[in-house]
């Protein structure tokens, strides 16, 4: 109850205080990347339940001659990189938090297609609501391997507390300022998870 109460208060306060930043960011996304301003994607939430996560769009709609989307690296712009490196693209997720689909702190919500690929231990990351930030995010973010990231997610599930959440939030602010761990080597963000070898 303490965690959910904090999520409601924090997300509502954030949406109100950051409304000028959100409005300006939305306007810039519309101007530089076009419509839609928001990127919507179904992700796995608490207990693996699907929900629609919303973020600010960071990539262009660009397709090859066969109408297939170009690789992420070719669709990403310097403005999109700026949004990701400053985590401004994550601000709409406060609405997901307010609705109870996400928490401020928890394992990051991942693609639904990954659900059958986890082993039993890795699936335990879904025992809590996914978060805007989390233990893995402050310990390497996208520079981590999937194995290490999942291990950190499960560690959080087993050791979660209000004090730990406060520590993660404070360290997240520092990570955003120094823009650390934004992407894996040679990737725009993270390579796809293809299961455990």
Secondary structure tally: strands: 4
Q: What is the spatial order of strands in the main beta sheet? A: 1-2
- From the N-terminal CA to the C-terminal CA, the straight-line distance is 39 Å
Helix content, binned percent: 40-55%
Based on helices, strands and strand pairing, what is the structural class?
A: mainly alpha
Which consecutive residue ranges, at least 5 long each, have pLDDT under 50? none
Q: How big a fraction of the residues is strand?
A: 5-15%
Number of domains: 1
Rounded to an integer, what's the Rg over CA atoms? 17 Å
Q: Residue-averaged pLDDT, rounded?
A: 88
Instruction: Report on the biggest sheet.
Output: 2 strands, antiparallel
Element order: H for helix, E for strand = HHEEHHHEHEHH
Oligomer: single chain
Outline: globular
**Number of DSSP helical runs:** 8
């Amino acid at each position: 109850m303490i965690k959910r109460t904090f999520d409601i208060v924090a997300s509502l306060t954030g949406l109100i205080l950051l409304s000028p930043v959100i409005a300006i960011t939305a306007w810039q996304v519309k101007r530089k990347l076009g419509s839609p301003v928001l990127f919507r994607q179904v992700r796995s939430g608490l207990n693996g339940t699907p929900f629609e996560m919303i973020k600010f769009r960071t990539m262009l709609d660009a397709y090859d001659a066969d109408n297939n989307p170009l690789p992420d690296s070719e669709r990403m712009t310097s403005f999109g990189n700026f949004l990701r490196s400053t985590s401004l693209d994550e601000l709409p997720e406060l609405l997901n938090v307010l609705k109870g689909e996400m928490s401020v702190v928890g394992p990051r919500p991942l693609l639904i297609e990954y659900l059958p690929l986890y082993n039993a231990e890795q699936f335990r990351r879904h025992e809590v609501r996914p978060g805007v930030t989390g233990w893995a995010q402050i310990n390497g973010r996208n520079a981590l391997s999937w194995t290490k990231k999942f291990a950190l997610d499960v560690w959080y599930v087993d050791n979660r507390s209000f004090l730990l959440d406060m520590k993660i939030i404070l360290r997240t602010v520092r990570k955003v300022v120094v823009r650390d761990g934004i992407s894996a080597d040679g990737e725009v963000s993270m390579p796809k998870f293809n299961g455990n070898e």
